[in-house]
Amino acid sequence: MDDDHKELLEARANVFKALGHPSRLAIVDALAGGERCVCELNESVDADLSTVSRHLAVLKNVGILSSEKCGNQVFYKLECPCVASFYGCVESVIRGTGQPLELENLQ
Amino acid sequence: MDDDHKELLEARANVFKALGHPSRLAIVDALAGGERCVCELNESVDADLSTVSRHLAVLKNVGILSSEKCGNQVFYKLECPCVASFYGCVESVIRGTGQPLELENLQ
DNA sequence: AAATCGTTTGCGTATTTAGCCAAATACGCT
DNA sequence: AGCGTATTTGGCTAAATACGCAAACGATTT
């Protein structure tokens, strides 16, 4: 296993790791509906505002989200809507079937 | 946020968390080529055999892998090949484009 | 320039995860 | 039964992650 490949695996893993928390998935879900500011996202997450802020930073660091300051507030948005396409497969894992419900989710 | 939704998010997050480690991604990659026994997987991972075994357990626990005992050895296989379809999107996150290289990876 | 609103950061604590080594288990063979 | 190979588990330590509170910061309003 050469170093390049190791780095690639690590980069990929970081993206998955960022998605590996229920609150962060809730954030991604909320942002699937479009840009939201932190205080809006705070309502869909049920955690301290500071915690939400940190979750946002995690998602942004790996490139899943981007942010834009607008006056007093900061708006976040999904940088890669394709992330939402994961769910069909993930759901199939959860159900234990290995087969997505919707074939469109595949390939 | 009701309890059902909370559970769903947690279940999804567990799948992503399981994928959130370079060694485990290396295992998934190796298994994309078909069933492998632990000692074979050990060669593609560069970690103590006991560590590999634990990584396998993590992936199996969330349903990404299944295992089958065959005489002396244990063979693992990918329970949901669709996991491999994530990479196009993940790669786009890494590159920072938000757009998968191959359109087939989407939807 | 003080007060306020929205957001981020510092810090302490609690929990989880990763890793290795050594011991245990499971299987097949003689 | 005893041996060798393949895999898992126990026990420990080190490192990473999650969380809330309080303080800091930046922009806006008064």
**CATH fold topology of chain A:** Arc Repressor Mutant, subunit A
- Give the name of the CATH superfamily of chain A: Winged helix-like DNA-binding domain superfamily/Winged helix DNA-binding domain
Low-pLDDT windows of residues of chain A: 103-107
Overall geometry of chain A: globular
CATH class of chain A: Mainly Alpha
Show the largest interface: A-B, 49 and 49 residues
What's the order of the H and E elements of chain A? HHEHHEEH
How many strands, what sense, and barrel or not for the largest sheet of chain A?
3 strands, antiparallel
Helix segment tally of chain A: 5
User: Structural class of chain A, please?
Assistant: alpha+beta
CATH architecture of chain A: Orthogonal Bundle
Separation, N- and C-terminal Cα atoms of chain A: 27 Å
Number of strands of chain A: 3
Q: What's the number of domains of chain A?
A: 1
Mean pLDDT of chain A, nearest integer? 91
Quaternary organisation of the protein chains: homodimer
Into which percentage range does the β-strand content of chain A fall?
A: 5-15%
Order of the strands making up the biggest sheet of chain A: 1-3-2
Cα-atom Rg of chain A, whole angstroms?
A: 16 Å
Helix content of chain A: 40-55%
How would you describe what is shown here?
The structure is a homodimer of 107-residue chains. Chain A has 107 residues and is α+β, with helices and mostly antiparallel strands. The first copy, chain A, has a single domain, classed as Winged helix-like DNA-binding domain superfamily/Winged helix DNA-binding domain (Arc Repressor Mutant, subunit A, Orthogonal Bundle). Chain A has a 3-stranded antiparallel beta sheet with strand order 1-3-2. The longest helix of chain A is centred in the N-terminal third of the chain and has 17 residues. At the A-B interface, α1, α2 and α5 of A face α1, α2 and α5 of B. Chain B binds a DNA duplex (30 and 30 nucleotides) through α4.
